[in-house]
């Protein structure tokens, strides 16, 4: 029982140390990132957070192996299961980062394509549901709401454009 308390206490210390290391590194990434431009600081912070997560996991795994009960060792299947779960989580995080990057690239491509409509006559339905036709004067991209072309004072979602001349 005494050994279990000691191991639990040491494990809690390792968790706190790993958490402190992650927080300190993320703060450093934020301060470094604030000097860098836009999206690169976010991806740098995410990358550091992922790398620190790996490091903390491996520290905990080594600690668990060093302090296991010799009379009741950790089951190999359980250990492999933990490694597989960690690997799957890492792959999902990498995939999520790639999708975010791809999404940003698609938004920029759509914005550039919509800019080619400036000065051209379009017809479509504006945000109020009214049919509009006229020359595009500018393109507006809003976060979360989408991409619009302006015909006079009317905002027409690019997805609602029916004709371009």
The tally of strands reads 6
| Alpha-carbon Rg, integer | 26 Å
Number of helices: 3
- Report the end-to-end length measured between terminal Cα atoms: 81 Å
Number of domains: 2
Report low-confidence residues grouped into runs of 5 or more: 32-38
What's the helix-strand series? HHHEEEEEE
Return the structural class. Answer: alpha+beta
For the biggest β-sheet, the strand order reads 2-1-6
**Overall shape:** rod-shaped
Specify the biggest β-sheet: 3 strands, antiparallel
Helix share, percent:
55-70%
The whole-number mean of residue pLDDT values reads 76
Determine the strand fraction and express it as a percent band. Answer: 15-25%
Report on this structure:
This protein has 165 residues and is of the alpha+beta class. It folds into two domains: 2-112; 118-164, SH3 type barrels, CATH 2.30.30. The chain is built from three helices and six strands. The chain has helices at 2-35, 38-66, 76-115; strands at 121-125, 131-135, 138-142, 146-151, 154-157, 161-164. It has a three-stranded antiparallel sheet with strand order 2-1-6, with no helix packed on it. The protein has a three-stranded antiparallel sheet with strand order 3-4-5, with helices on one face. Strand 4 and strand 5 (154-157) form a beta hairpin. The longest helix is centred in the middle third of the chain and has 40 residues, at 76-115. The model is unreliable at 32-38 (pLDDT under 50).
